[in-house]
Design goal:
Chain lengths: 242, 304
């Protein structure tokens, strides 16, 4: 973890609620799966945002405006400086399979672009399943198509397969290992489908670096912090509550 | 310029102590700076047995602070002594304060006495003010007689000095302070968090899974300062001041109100370098206010 002052290069609206922010000046090495904590002047807590991609000191964040914090983020102009904690959390382990299947739901597809590119660089073209509510919520499809075989599912059938990410997953050969990020209900359904995978979890966090225990979950190996031991967990280790 | 303070027969190189619950077991922060600059560290609240704590969400944002309802998640006293403290000892050379929570007098007594032979720990902070544990924690800290009796029992078996951490969620905190002092408390720390709540605007549902939690952060600073001012005048044992401290100026103000040491809590979670920053800034802020020796200003406000 490092505390870095980064410069906003661009902050572009991709669809009605999703934005892409690029930041320069990162010195911490970051890999797919990790996240950053962005400080906003008007807010007490930092905003944990997954790393969509990171290359040559430029960090790409994809975020959805869901509340007043992300609303503030969406209004940040290029050239502004942001106080960011970089290099938080653990990584996806890309050596687990030669035939990776990546499953993303909604804004959860964000970390999968960096992961897809990491596989592609290794000479592996992953299969990527992207689940969205409807056609209007789709973003980054062209970016994924450059490096992956993409299957899109929408809840209302307005684009691609009608159904959710699990419906789309059932349309292909059962993966030997998958990587997923998305809403808890999707991750839980995915775990029911197969336990051979890694899941990136989301949680309301206090600090983002293991100090407050605000985001601890139950696992088969005891209590783990989403921010510190995660956000990537083995599907088989997560104990779902309720 | 002297930043040393004497506290419970122990000399701290400065009065800055990260508050319990906001600093893990310390070693997490050693990844980003040399934590040997700290006066001491108050460890994550420890109970007799391991506790998961409350369901998520445990955190809700507020203006000038946050509400937390962790619920004393910790690995239990046995593991704290056998694993966490040795890990901390590798990166921090001074002695630390263990923080103990509980549900019953028996549990508090057992957990406190487990630290009797732990050399790394120079004092126990007795948390009788955790608002997030049902039937325990704060229940001990809001009734004078219950608090008095608990401290008395703990003092019978615990060989380390006892710092009692008071809850601000009482009508008269001075009465609580006097009650624990008369039971033999060696010091008092205040304040713990204020019981608060936030709701989801769309549904009206509380953000925190257990509905309420403890509010801390800059928003509580003036109230905490007032309570430190009142309590430190009413008792003759030393007082640790905390609540919304974020900078060296806050530290000086807390000490003038009557604090011998100052704990820094919530700010560590959003500004991980805050304790180091405060310690680095102390000499220049002391110089600005013509303070040669920090000890000289403790309780300076009492004469007004």
């Amino acid at each position: 973890m490092k505390q870095e002052i980064l410069t906003v290069i661009s902050n572009i609206q991709l669809n009605s609620s999703t934005f892409e922010m690029k930041l320069s000046g990162v010195t911490e090495d970051m890999r797919p799966g990790q996240f950053v904590e962005v400080a906003l002047k008007e807010k007490y807590l930092r905003r944990p945002i997954s790393v969509a991609d990171y290359e040559n000191g430029v960090l790409t964040l994809l975020y959805k405006v869901v509340g007043s914090g992300t609303e503030i983020m969406s209004n940040i102009a290029p050239g502004e400086k942001l106080d960011v904690l970089t290099g938080l959390g653990n990584l996806f382990s890309i050596e687990k399979t030669e035939k990776p299947v990546l499953v993303g739901g909604g804004i959860g597809v964000a970390p999968l672009i960096g992961l897809s590119r990491a596989f592609y660089k290794k000479g592996i073209k992953p299969t990527v399943i992207l689940g969205f509510r409807n056609k209007d919520e789709i973003f980054y499809l062209d970016e994924f198509e450059k490096v992956a075989n993409v299957i899109v599912a929408t809840d209302d059938g307005s684009f691609g397969i009608k159904g959710n990410a699990i419906t789309a997953l059932s349309s292909i050969e059962k993966p030997e290992f998958y990587y997923a990020c998305g809403p808890m209900v999707m991750l839980k359904a995915l775990s029911n489908y197969s336990l051979d995978g890694e899941l990136s979890l989301e949680a309301r966090m206090g600090c983002g670096f293991g100090a407050c225990m605000g985001c601890s979950i139950k696992t088969t190996d005891g209590y783990k912090r989403v921010c510190k031991e995660g956000p990537v967990f083995m599907a088989k280790e997560i104990i779902y509550e309720n | 310029m002297k930043t040393e303070v004497s506290f419970l027969g122990h000399v701290l190189k400065n009065p800055i102590i990260p508050a319990s619950g906001c600093y893990g077991f310390g070693y997490e922060f050693s990844e980003i700076y040399d934590i040997n600059c700290l006066g001491s560290i108050s460890l994550k609240g420890t109970t007799l047995l391991p506790r998961y704590g409350n369901p998520l969400p445990r955190i809700a944002e507020c203006p000038a602070g946050l509400i937390n309802a962790i619920g004393l998640q910790n690995p239990g006293v046995e593991k704290v002594i056998s694993e966490e403290i040795p890990k901390l000892s590798k990166v921090y050379s001074d002695k630390v304060i263990a923080n103990v929570g509980g549900h019953s007098t028996e549990e508090y007594v057992k957990t406190c006495s487990a630290f009797n032979d732990v050399d790394k720990v120079f004092a126990i902070e007795l948390n009788i003010s955790c608002p997030n544990v049902k039937g325990g924690g704060m229940a001990f800290g809001t009734d004078e007689k219950v608090a008095h009796d608990l401290v008395k029992e703990v003092k019978k078996v615990c060989t380390k000095p006892i710092i009692v951490k008071l809850s601000p969620n009482v009508t008269d905190i001075v009465k609580m302070a006097k009650a624990v002092e008369s039971a033999g408390a060696d010091a008092i720390s205040l304040v713990n968090t204020f019981v608060g709540m936030r709701l989801d605007l769309r549904t009206g549902k509380p953000i925190i899974s257990v509905k309420t939690g403890g509010y801390s952060g800059e928003g509580i600073y003036p109230i905490a300062l007032r309570m430190v001012y009142q309590v430190s005048q009413a008792v003759s044992i030393p007082v640790i001041g905390m609540g919304g401290v974020t900078c060296a100026e806050d530290v000086l103000e807390m000490m003038q109100a009557g604090a011998t040491c100052v704990m820094v809590g919530a700010k560590n979670l959003v500004e991980p370098f805050v304790c180091k920053q405060i310690i680095d800034d102390l000499p220049k802020v002391m110089k600005k206010y013509n303070i040669e020796n920090l000890t000289d200003i403790i309780g300076r406000a009492h004469k007004f």
